[in-house]
Structures are given as C-alpha cells and as structure tokens.
C-alpha cells in the first residue's frame, strides 16, 4: 500500500484529503507543522507528499528545497493563491506538480494517481537504462543477458530471462497469464497460456529460496502474477 504524507496546517482540509485518499486505497499520515513535516519526509517512510506552501515553522518552499537532493519521491505542492503557481515554476524547487485551493477531492485523487504512474514509468526507464538491475539478492545484467543469484551466475534460457526482466521492470503490478503470454511470446490468444505457468515455475526454482513459498513472483489467485520488489 502506497504511503502518503500530508503536510497541511488546516486540519479540516487535511482530514478531507486523508479520507478521500484512504477510500482510494492509500495509507495517509498528517503533519500540521513545517518542521515536523520536514522530519517525516526525511525519514523515507513515504511514497508521495502533499505539501502546503504556507506552513508554521518552515514553509513549503524551504521544505522542498531541503528534501529534493535527499528524497526522490513525487511532491505535489498545494497553494491557496494562483500567484504562487508562478513562484513554484520560477524557483524550480523540484515539486512534481501543484494544485490550487479550492480543489475537488476527486481532482486530488486523480493528481496523486497520475504522479504515481509517472514516477513509476520514470523508475522503470532508469532501471532499463542502467543495464544492471539489483533487486534483493538478484542481479540482472541486461546487456550481457546474465542473471546472478547471491553473486552466483544462474543459467536462464531466453524466455525465462525475458519473463524475469519483464517482472522486475514492472514491479507490484498484477498480470494475467494472457497478458504475460502476449508480452513475452508476442501472440495474443494463439498460444497455450500453460506455457506461462511452466516458465514462472522454472524462474521461481532459480530465484526463490523456497519456490513453493515464493517471495518475489507471487500468485494472485484468480487474477495472475505479480513481482514483489
């Protein structure tokens, strides 16, 4: 579950934001003070921050400047004045988005989801471009087409490698057998999706300490599979 921190001194607004975000499946915490909010952001416990600009202690501008070189998560800056939008753009503080009060709760939720989606796309792009991906005890050398488990090379056949790479670069997303078959084998509705289950079992045998109780490639019963990063 994604964790969101709301840094907002108007508790009524913060509680409305929290309620709608929790309804949509997010875990939410609130801080009313700039200094407390800054400390919480630096703790690294959160996946996204809703940061009000006008705060007691330290304002949102200063918080954003301090955390941008330390924490790499989406920051949505919240302002009550349209004039501050130009300040946000002009100062280049590192905020990923802004929203102006008053706003509807549905708009807020849509902005949050859009920022999560964009951040995840960028993260995947960075992983692929890095050529070497480390996830737990797994190391994948994309360019050399090699996989290492606990620093020991393990042989992966072509489709096994493609399947593992696809999962690693799309973490925490549930994929059906049909979708996996289409993405890896490139043919929709023309192959036997049992092939997917067979290859997943083979990959599990190579990357999981206990393939019967997998940590990485998890079965979502009645839906498909997901890679837990």
Describe what this molecule looks like in 3D.
By secondary structure, the chain is an alpha/beta fold. The chain folds into two domains: 3-127, 3-Layer(aba) Sandwich (Rossmann fold), CATH 3.40.50.2300; 132-227, Arc Repressor Mutant, subunit A. Helices cover 43% and strands 21% of the residues. The protein contains eight helices and eleven strands. A five-stranded parallel β-sheet has the order 2-1-3-4-5, sandwiched between helices. It has a four-stranded antiparallel β-sheet with strand order 6-7-8-9. The two termini are 13 Å apart. The model has no long low-confidence stretch (mean pLDDT 86).
How is this fold's topology laid out?
Layout: E1 3-7, H1 11-23, E2 27-31, H2 34-42, E3 48-52, H3 60-67, E4 75-79, H4 83-91, E5 97-100, H5 105-130, E6 132-135, E7 138-141, E8 146-149, E9 152-154, H6 158-168, H7 177-185, H8 194-207, E10 217-220, E11 224-227
Parallel strand pairs: 1-2, 1-3, 3-4, 4-5
Antiparallel strand pairs: 6-7, 7-8, 8-9, 10-11
Helix pairs in contact: 1-5, 2-3, 6-7, 6-8, 7-8
């Amino acid at each position: 579950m994604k964790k969101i921190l709301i840094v907002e001194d108007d508790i009524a607004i913060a509680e409305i934001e929290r309620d709608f975000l929790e309804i949509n499946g997010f875990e939410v915490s609130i801080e009313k003070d700039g200094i407390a909010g800054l400390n919480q952001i630096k703790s690294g416990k959160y996946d996204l921050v809703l940061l009000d600009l006008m705060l007691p202690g330290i304002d949102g501008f200063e918080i954003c400047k301090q955390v941008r070189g330390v924490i790499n998560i989406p920051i949505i800056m919240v302002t009550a004045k349209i004039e501050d939008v130009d300040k946000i753009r002009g100062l280049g503080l590192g905020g990923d988005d802004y929203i102006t009060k008053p706003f509807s709760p549905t708009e807020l939720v849509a902005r949050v989801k859009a920022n999560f989606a964009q951040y995840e796309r960028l993260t995947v792009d960075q992983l692929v471009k890095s050529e070497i991906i480390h996830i737990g005890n797994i190391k994948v050398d994309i360019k050399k087409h090699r996989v290492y488990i606990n620093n020991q090379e393990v042989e992966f056949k072509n489709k096994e490698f493609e399947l593992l790479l696809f999962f690693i670069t799309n973490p925490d997303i549930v994929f059906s057998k049909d979708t996996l078959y289409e993405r890896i084998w490139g043919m929709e509705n023309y192959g036997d999706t049992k092939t997917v289950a067979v290859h997943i079992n083979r990959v599990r045998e190579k990357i999981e300490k206990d393939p019967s109780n997998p940590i990485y490639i998890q079965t979502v019963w009645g839906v498909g599979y997901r890679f837990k990063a």
